[in-house]
Design goal:
The chain has 264 residues and is of the alpha+beta class. The protein has helices at 113-131, 136-196, 200-206, 213-248, and strands spanning 2-6, 9-15, 24-30, 34-41, 52-57, 73-74, 77-86, 97-105. Strands 1, 2, 3, 4, 5, 6, 7 and 8 form an 8-stranded antiparallel beta sheet that branches. Helix 2 packs antiparallel against helix 3 and helix 2 packs antiparallel against helix 4.
């Protein structure tokens, strides 16, 4: 049995045997009563690198399910939440633990500072106990086999959306440049007309007021450059998603791999 000292008092945690996914439930007694769910998982922002642990309040994996009873309770308040232990960093370092979302009770209220510290101490204690398992590497390999199909299913629409964004930004940048050139050509045409037959209307059309030809011919090229930057950023996101997909399916990947050619 694991004994954890917290601001709210002593908490005892009894681990169960791992289930078919490698998850372990810790039954809590003492100052906190309920269950903590610990499972091996992928590192934050690196889905193809399974060197992390997810510690969830309740008896379910918080990534895929709502908090499930028995939930940890302090003074009658039941809480849900999640911490992720990145095994590539020391547990006591700034990158060792991540909190994807705040610890909140079932009435959507934040935990008090004292309760938060208690719950984090319990979750970190359970995570440290799991990390010390002699079969940790086997559990991480098991998690990869279990999680990969689900992660690939999640990545598919994300990749499709990223490819669509790259194409959209590149297509819009080209359209904006064409429109900018047309505005400039129209301005010069009117300017030549005005030189031979000046008029107040032509002067208005040739002015730099907002929405006029002069304004648009100056603004549109800058907007095209912005769209180019958006496309580069979207392409980087797409490259990351593609590398994760290739990593999950154990194929070599080129980080700068380009998407399919966009139809203009």
């Amino acid at each position: 049995m694991l004994v954890i000292r917290t601001l709210s008092g002593i908490v005892r945690a009894e681990p169960t045997a791992p289930d078919e996914t490698g998850s372990v439930l810790y039954e809590l007694t003492g100052a906190v009563r309920g269950t903590v769910h610990v499972c091996p998982t992928y590192r934050p922002h690196q889905w193809d690198d399974f060197r992390a642990l997810r510690v969830s309040l309740g008896s379910a994996n918080a990534l895929y399910e709502l908090p499930a009873e028995p939930l940890p309770r302090i003074r009658g308040r039941a809480f849900g939440g999640c911490l992720v232990r990145d095994l590539e960093h020391p547990a006591d370092g700034p990158e060792g633990w991540r909190e994807p979302w705040a610890l909140r009770d079932m009435e959507d209220r934040d935990a008090t500072p004292r309760m938060s510290e208690t719950l984090r101490a319990v979750m970190r204690g359970c995570g440290a106990d799991y990390e010390a398992r002699s079969d940790l590497d086997d559990m991480l390999r098991l998690a990869r086999r279990v999680e990969t199909p689900r992660l690939l299913a999640l990545l598919a629409p994300m990749i499709a959306e990223a490819e669509s964004e790259v194409c959209r930004y590149e297509r819009e940048a080209q359209q904006v440049r064409v429109e900018g050139r047309r505005c400039l050509q129209g301005w010069w045409l009117l300017a030549r007309m005005g030189s031979g037959c000046p008029s107040p209307l032509l002067a208005l059309l040739l002015s730099s007021q907002r929405g006029g030809l002069a304004h648009r011919s100056a603004w549109l090229p800058r907007w095209a450059e912005d769209l180019d930057r958006f496309a580069v950023k979207a392409r980087r996101v797409l490259g990351h998603f593609l590398s994760e997909r290739e990593g999950l399916t154990s194929r070599a990947v080129s980080p700068g791999r380009a998407p399919e050619t966009c139809s203009r």
